[in-house]
Amino acid sequence: MKKIATTLGLLACLPLAAFAQDIELDKELNGLDIETEIIGDSTATAPGPGAAAGTQVLQVTNNSDSTVTCQLDPGPAETAASESPMASIKAGESAVLRLDGSYASATMRAKLICSEEE
Question: What's the CATH code of the domain at 87?
Answer without folding.
Answer: 2.60.40
